[in-house]
Batch of 2 targets.
Target 1
Amino acid sequence: MMDRILSKLKPNTIVKGSLFPENVHVIIAQPFGNAIKLIGRGDSNQVYEPVIPEDKFSLLSD
């Protein structure tokens, strides 16, 4: 499942969902144990750097 999610989180991809208050443009996403470390920039230029655990992957949408 993680490989499928990582393949969608390519640079410049826009993600949304309940994890973020705005659309987030992916800068980089990397595996982090059983989670994904995502670094992205919101439409407001806010930088987001969450570590998203596997049980929260479903909260991401592209």
Target 2
Amino acid sequence: MAKEQGTKPIAQNKKARHDYAIEDKYEAGLVLTGTEVKSLREGRASLAESFITIDRRGEMWLEGANIPEYLNGTWNNHAPKRKRKLLLHAAQIDKLARQTQAKGFTIIPLSLYFKDGRVKVEIALARGKKEFDKRQSLREEQDKREALRAMRYANKQVR
């Protein structure tokens, strides 16, 4: 079988971009079992309530991510919401650990995808938005949409 090329998205954390202001992004590998990979190949995953922690030994963990059991799995199927280890360089983990000590910063998963046949997680160093920030960003997006709509309408009238 030929080796897979390119990226294939599995799951997005859409709420994260709404609730957090993203400062910096990283790509991390993920330690998985065989049935987890098979379940991900079927496109079954959710990052909705997931978060990332750094333990005392300097290891990063993805917690709360839901990868449902593989339907054709046997007795050795995985637990759907277990902790999963993230693979990053030690220097990157140290940098993220220092930055999360700063006020208001946290590490969140943004997306889960296959890259050249391996499962990767896009994680971000983020700061939580206040309620008025969320409303303002929604208003800005709506204004952009209305401006594009008006420009399309004006261009259509010219023809």
